[in-house]
Write a structure and sequence with these properties.
heterodimer, A: about 350 residues, alpha/beta, Rossmann fold, 13 helices, about 45% helix, globular, B: about 325 residues, seven-stranded mixed beta sheet, 12 helices, about 20% strand, binds thiamine diphosphate
Chain lengths: ~350, ~325
């Protein structure tokens, strides 16, 4: 099956968007592969690869407007970068640095959700805030197929349906929650059909087709912005690699499965289309890869140039103001760490 | 006897109990086919079948709620919370339901389940995987909270936990999973759930610890003996709810000084409770205040600074010196 069997160039998407979809997907892949190598070399910590899911993350985020919110999980650092989070922050995050959590003030991205599905009620809250304030702002919450089993998923959908708020729930259904396959996660055929139970629109798209994802999210944003309420979008996709760098997928799935998905690779397919429309060629490809490799190299260098972590940060953002009790504890820890080798105290 | 790591000892305990008692069930996220993200349940599904060792959908409240229902019907569920940082999702089913079912039904229904979960810091895990949250459950009447410090205890305590008639939170420190090996009998044996273990004898100072901190405390105690000829008695608590205050008091009557070493944040946790009980039972035997060596009351930090945040043996040793100087 050719997912992007588009013989004719689409008329509803500009060349700029087409090229952006492509270059951002390649950017994520270059970044992702480097991160896996960095983890193996001990230069960053445990890392959850996203390879295979580039179309989901890039096309959904590019269909948002700058004012809209991205509400990510641990695997959606790709979407975060597309929406404006600096690459080195993502690297620092996976290298266990507090600096990696910094999100620039003008970038509407929420913090990475680690406990599954907890971000979805937040997305509903963001959307409710926009509605209460009368501002045109949509929140898009990412989640995995596994997350659809958590109560938070159902509560968030129900709230969104009841309040009719501008929120999009975007499921990257990569068929596995660590080792548990989709058919053991739910007895429904799709995630999309669950939306009906909450009075929410549900659609299912091919998550390997950047244009299909882009169009689905663009239309959901338009509807939400026009007061048309929430949408659940399920994008069918696959993670080629391990759940995280500490996982061994050979324990639970046949490698031929990934091979079959690679044949429908979102990047390869879009490249073929771009070439056939005269928008891309080998020279552009070489140039892009060189540019991206050096972008990643520079970001890695910035991550590695960080000095040792400052123990004062442990206390900085626990409360609005430090209590005398914590101030004493900070002084005590400073004294403890004075003769600590390897700190700059 | 075989040499086992702690994670192997856990696996072996589950194996022995699944084999002995048909009512024992093992389930949770990724525990079946995958054998657990730490391999704690490796091979058990193949051996005991998918009805007794199974993967659940991704829902902690559902997992513990299901375990409660099964337990009330006479099963002995051993449910896994993949990382204890995610126990908040199951808080009502544990603290609101399992813990008080016996009380609310005048003993008609009980929830003899075991909640197994990896926890603890020092492994450079991603955010929210490493917290020591036992304090939340030390506060919950109706629960037992057990924390082994070595492979032998892990197996014997887990078997006791499965056979116990009350809900048990069984916390397995990730740092201990593979860092030590010990002789562990292949057959079933039990270690009592509410008996602390004196792991080093001494007459000058009582040190109370549990989990990974037992090893940090032991290291500091050796250093103390070397530097000052002072002998610390180190007590491995094994259970933080209930606390075996008799063993602690017996030791304090001999040493007259005590210190608690805890990986969890400072306030209102197991250490606070231990110190309160020492005050209640042995204050006239003390020659100075009981102190605690703990991290500060701040959020569990990012991986790169966790080693500075968690007390190490040098910091624990300074804590000993301070207790001895007061
Ligand atoms: C509340 C909670 N429970 C368990 C985990 C451990 N865990 C991390 S990722 C994961 C699987 C998630 O699967 P899915 O939602 O499909 O997303 P994917 O990882 O496939 O992107 C699990 C069980 C967690 N992070 N949070």
């Amino acid at each position: 099956m050719a997912d992007t069997a588009m013989l004719r160039k689409p008329s509803d998407v500009t060349d700029d968007v087409l090229l952006n979809l492509y270059t951002e997907m390649v950017r994520l892949r270059v970044f992702d592969r480097r991160c896996v190598r960095l983890q193996r070399a001990g230069r960053i910590g445990t890392y959850p690869p996203l390879e295979g899911q580039e179309a989901c993350q890039v096309a959904s985020t590019l269909a948002l407007r700058r004012q809209d919110f991205v509400v990510p999980t641990y695997r959606d650092y790709g979407a975060m970068m597309v929406h404006g989070v600096p690459m080195e922050h993502i690297l620092m995050y996976w290298n266990g640095r507090a600096e990696g959590c910094e999100i620039p003030d003008d970038v509407n991205v929420f913090p990475i959700a680690v406990p599954i599905a907890t971000q979805l009620p937040h997305a509903a809250g963001l959307a409710w805030a926009a509605k209460l304030r009368g501002i045109d702002q949509v929140a898009l919450g990412f989640f995995g197929d596994g997350a659809s089993s958590e109560g938070d998923f159902h509560e968030a959908l129900n709230f969104a349906g009841v309040f009719q708020i501008p929120v999009i729930f975007f499921c990257e259904n990569n068929q596995y929650a660590i080792s548990v396959p989709f058919r053991r996660q739910t007895a429904t055929q799709t995630i999309a059909e669950k939306a009906a139970a909450y009075g929410v629109r549900g659609v299912r798209v091919n998550g390997q087709d950047a244009l299909e994802v882009y169009r689905a999210v663009r239309s959901a944003v338009e509807q939400a912005a026009a007061g048309g309420g929430p949408t659940l979008i399920e994008a069918l996709t696959y993670r080629y690699g391990a759940h995280t760098t500490s996982d061994d997928p050979s324990k639970y799935r046949d490698p031929s499965e990934a091979d079959a998905w690679r044949e429908r690779d979102p990047i390869v397919q879009l490249r073929q289309s771009l070439v056939s429309w005269g928008l891309w060629d080998d020279e552009a490809e070489t140039e892009l890869l060189e540019r991206l490799e050096s972008e990643v190299t520079a970001a890695v260098a910035r991550m590695e140039a960080l000095g040792p972590p400052n123990p004062d940060h442990l206390f900085d953002c626990v409360y609005a103001e430090l209590s005398p009790h914590l101030e004493r504890q900070r002084r005590a820890l400073r004294a403890e760490l004075k003769d600590w080798e390897g700190t700059d105290q | 006897m075989a040499q086992m790591t702690m994670v192997q000892a856990v696996n072996n305990a589950l194996d022995v109990e699944l084999g002995r008692d048909k009512s024992v069930l093992v389930f949770g996220e990724d525990v079946g086919q995958n054998g657990g993200v730490f391999r704690a349940t490796d091979g058990l599904q193949a051996k005991y079948g998918k009805d007794r060792v199974f993967d659940t959908p991704l829902a902690e409240s559902g997992i513990i709620g299901l375990a409660n229902g099964l337990a009330m019907q006479g099963f002995r569920p051993v449910a896994e919370i993949q990382f204890f940082g995610f126990v908040f999702e199951a808080m009502d089913e544990i603290a609101g339901q399992a813990a008080r079912m016996r009380f609310r039904t005048n003993g008609r229904y009980t929830c003899p389940l075991v909640v197994r979960s990896p926890f603890g810091g020092g492994n450079k895990t991603p955010e929210m995987h490493a917290d020591s949250l036992e304090g939340l459950f030390v506060q919950t009447p109706g629960l037992r909270v057990v924390i082994p410090s070595n492979p032998y205890d892990a197996k014997g305590l887990l078997i006791s936990a499965i056979r116990d008639n009350d809900p048990v939170i069984f916390l397995e420190h990730m740092k201990l999973y593979r860092s030590l090996r010990a002789e562990v009998p292949e057959e079933a044996y039990t270690v009592p759930l509410d008996k602390a273990n004196v792991v080093r004898e001494g007459r000058d100072l009582t040190v109370i610890a549990y989990g990974a901190m037992v090893h940090t405390a032991l290291k500091a105690a050796e250093e103390l003996a070397k530097q000052r000829g002072v002998q610390a008695e180190v007590i491995d608590l094994r259970s933080v709810n209930p606390i075996d205050i008799e063993t602690i008091v017996t030791s304090v009557k001999k040493t007259h000084r005590a210190v608690v070493v805890q990986e969890a944040q400072r306030s209102a946790g197991a250490a606070a409770e231990i110190i309160a009980q020492i005050n209640e039972h042995a204050i006239y035997h003390l020659e100075g205040p009981v102190l605690r060596v703990t991290p500060p009351d701040t959020v569990y930090p990012f991986a790169q600074i966790e080693d500075e945040w968690i007390p190490d043996s040098a910091q624990v040793l300074r804590g000993f010196d301070k207790v001895l100087s007061l």
